[in-house]
Design the sequence.
């Protein structure tokens, strides 16, 4: 029996080894398929573009799209140039100056930035909920750990703003690791916290303190972290009509039968409000392209053209929840995709 | 004649025989029985509870996932001879079949037929893959082109969910209209078992992920099993007992309890950065999971080797076997059932991992199954994780269906473990 088993083991090993050699000869030198990494928010859009790109010409290889999160994606993207590293990084925020410098240091010198569209952060309640209307200050006072530097003692929405209903504060939202949470903190909480002049002044005097005051979310149970899965939050809202949830706009649109967006500063999250920039919880979505790979990996230019042309109202990306950018931004994106003009690091923060 | 070894039960030590009928004694007996009963009840309760949880899991998964294995199809009356643009059955059999099909513009034919049969909205009723299905049907049966025929094509996701009773009111109305004339039906979704990931839930399949898992597990097994067994053999049979081997033992036990994400980081640095192996490949995934599985195999292997009685070794030595002969002819074959059980449990754990695969790029959208060990691949639990996060509601049933496939795979592996143990196990 042992002989038989060892024979099987050795033959599988041999099989594995020979297969590796056979295929690594091709894969080691040049890669044929486009590799994309990065944000889980841009992931569904990249996926759809990858599919359309391959369907348009079936001789093209299927692009591989990874969902690693913006930070992890840019890290892999900036690791160097060559078949081992990805060609495109998806980002739900702009590349940071420090990331750009890492890129430069590793030889990734020419990076093309393309804004592919806009995403909205929705605060929503169940359709059976109390139809709340909030301001960024209300949200900040209700959810921040230390609103304006003092510990948060608010228990009910009426403690935050007397005109709100007398219901306990309970908000389901994404965890710290999520890009949606970053956007929630930067777009809504920071907007609320900046309304106080003393706190705003902190930004220049003590940046760490300012970030702690503006971005930290309370941990006493009023804000409940729900993991990276936005579908879970939608399901919980349906079961608890008095609670609020924070998630991407596309989830709200898809589940319009169970949840309803809450107006922030009098603006409801809708396609037009986000596209025009009047809704506060909107953020741009980017893809970053390694110029050095454009000639090496077949099809990158066509892929970019497909992505830019699909970022319009009524396209298949819009059906997935992507909101088209204003015309001038789209024009700039389309130019960047055709001319491959690298970004200037001094513009980044 | 008295037995000298019998215990001395004389009256001197026991002043009075126990009165089993006395009230105090009866109470004590009753207490002991009820303690026994309580313990038994707790045991039943624990088993009942775990069976209940398991039944709940299976019930919800099968209940939700059952629909994922069914595909809704819509009938179209296609007048192929009129639309075939000069193609005939022979040209579809010939070497230029693909070019012929390309010139026929199948997507256009499908859209026109749908609009003629069911109105202007009907283009959105059919899956984006409908023309591919028609194409495959034509290739299988070229004679189809000579007659006007009723063809069943896969429905798009909104229609699919509506036919299963979970869709929007508008779609349910459309489905009711189709159903009245018998133009909609559902059948087993073979596509789910043969396709890979896609953006439309009506087109997705599990095969790409299943194949990725299989390739990964082959790499894991061929790496972790020999190394783990040899390490266990050396540590049990050859290694001197000293501080150094104690240290190794503690390290291996620790390694078995390290969170799996750490192995992912290790795999990223060692296999991708240092060795430059291809990212997202099942080769790297398998090696990373092998690091995680190896300690489990070493621990199981050492226990199995320890349980081989020393008399076997001594007997073999006694008739002149060398240490290597003792180990490979006697100890290892007897220990193998135990080692295999441990191995398969370790492999089942590796099959269910996603965290380490995230770091090495296997959490990805890959729309074609991997061709070999160095191709980009994903794995079953990763696919489940990705689908569970999808916005489109059609993915809910696909997620559950994928979980059912994973459970069947696991069940198969555990059944194999039990079979191997029962077949080769020797009791002393």
Sequence:
């Amino acid at each position: 029996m042992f002989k038989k088993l060892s024979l099987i083991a050795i033959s599988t090993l041999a099989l594995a080894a020979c297969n590796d050699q056979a295929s690594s000869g091709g894969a080691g030198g040049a890669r044929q398929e486009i590799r994309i990494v990065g944000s889980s928010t841009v992931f569904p859009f990249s996926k759809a573009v990858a599919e359309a790109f391959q369907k348009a010409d079936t001789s093209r290889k299927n692009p591989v799209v990874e969902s690693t999160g913006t930070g992890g994606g840019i890290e892999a993207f900036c690791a160097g140039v060559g078949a081992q590293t990805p060609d495109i990084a998806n980002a739900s925020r702009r590349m940071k100056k420090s990331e750009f410098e890492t890129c430069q240091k590793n030889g990734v010198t020419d990076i093309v930035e393309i804004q592919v569209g806009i995403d909205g952060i929705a605060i929503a309640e169940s359709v059976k909920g109390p139809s709340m209307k909030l301001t960024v200050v209300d949200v900040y006072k209700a959810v921040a750990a230390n609103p304006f530097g003092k510990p948060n003692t608010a228990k009910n929405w009426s403690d935050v703003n007397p005109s709100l209903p007398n219901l306990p504060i309970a908000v389901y939202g994404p965890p710290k690791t999520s890009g949606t949470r970053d956007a929630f903190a930067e777009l809504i909480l920071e907007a609320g916290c900046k309304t106080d002049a003393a706190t705003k002044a902190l930004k220049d005097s003590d940046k760490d303190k300012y970030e702690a005051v503006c971005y930290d979310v309370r941990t006493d149970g009023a804000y409940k972290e729900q993991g990276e899965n936005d579908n879970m939050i939608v399901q919980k809202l349906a079961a608890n009509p008095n609670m609020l949830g924070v998630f991407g706009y596309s989830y709200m649109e898809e589940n319009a039968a169970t949840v309803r967006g809450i107006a922030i500063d009098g603006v409801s999250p809708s396609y037009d409000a986000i596209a025009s920039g009047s809704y506060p919880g909107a953020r741009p979505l980017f893809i970053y392209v390694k110029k050095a790979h454009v000639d090496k990996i077949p099809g990158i230019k066509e892929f970019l053209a497909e992505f830019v042309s699909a970022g319009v109202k009524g396209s298949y990306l819009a059906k997935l929840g992507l909101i088209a950018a204003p015309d001038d931004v789209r024009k700039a994106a389309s130019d960047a995709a055709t001319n491959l003009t690298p970004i200037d690091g001094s513009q980044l923060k | 004649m008295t037995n000298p070894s019998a215990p001395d039960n004389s009256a001197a030590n026991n002043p009075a025989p126990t009165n089993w009928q006395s009230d105090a004694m009866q109470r004590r007996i009753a207490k002991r029985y009820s303690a026994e009963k309580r313990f038994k009840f707790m045991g039943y309760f624990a088993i009942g509870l775990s069976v209940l949880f398991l039944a709940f899991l299976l019930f919800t998964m099968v209940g939700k996932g059952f629909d994922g294995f069914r595909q809704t199809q819509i009938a179209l009356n296609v007048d192929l001879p009129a639309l075939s643009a000069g193609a005939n059955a022979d040209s579809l059999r010939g070497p230029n079949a693909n070019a012929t099909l390309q010139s026929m513009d199948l997507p256009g034919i499908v859209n026109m037929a749908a609009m003629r049969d069911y109105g202007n909205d009907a283009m959105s009723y059919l899956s984006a893959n409908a023309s591919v299905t028609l194409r495959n049907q034509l290739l299988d049966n070229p004679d189809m082109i000579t007659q006007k025929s009723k063809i069943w094509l896969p429905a798009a996701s909104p229609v699919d969910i509506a036919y299963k009773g979970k869709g929007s009111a508008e779609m349910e109305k459309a489905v009711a209209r189709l159903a009245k004339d018998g133009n909609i039906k559902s059948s087993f979704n073979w596509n789910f078992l043969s396709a890979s990931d896609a953006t439309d839930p009506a087109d997705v399949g599990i095969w790409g992920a299943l194949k990725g898992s299989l390739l990964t597990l082959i790499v894991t097994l061929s790496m972790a099993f020999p190394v783990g067994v040899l390490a266990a053999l050396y540590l049990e049979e050859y290694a001197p007992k000293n501080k150094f081997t104690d240290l190794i033992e503690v390290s291996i036990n620790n390694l078995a309890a390290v969170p799996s994400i750490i192995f992912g980081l290790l795999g990223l640095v060692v296999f991708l950065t240092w060795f430059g192996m291809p990212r997202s490949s099942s080769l790297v995934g398998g090696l990373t999971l092998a690091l995680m599985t190896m300690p489990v195999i070493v621990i199981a292997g050492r226990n199995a080797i320890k349980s081989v009685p020393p008399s076997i070794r001594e007997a073999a030595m006694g008739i002149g076997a060398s240490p290597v002969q003792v180990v490979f002819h006697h100890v290892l074959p007897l220990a193998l059932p135990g080692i295999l059980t441990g191995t398969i449990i370790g492999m089942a754990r590796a099959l269910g991992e996603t965290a380490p695969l995230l770091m090495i790029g296997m959490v990805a959208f890959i729309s074609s199954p991997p061709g070999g060990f160095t191709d980009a691949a994903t794995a079953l639990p990763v696919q489940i994780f990705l689908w569970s996060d999808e916005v489109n509601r059609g993915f809910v049933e696909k997620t559950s269906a994928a979980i059912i496939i994973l459970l069947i795979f696991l069940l198969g592996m555990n059944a194999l473990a039990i079979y191997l143990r029962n077949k080769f196990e020797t009791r002393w």
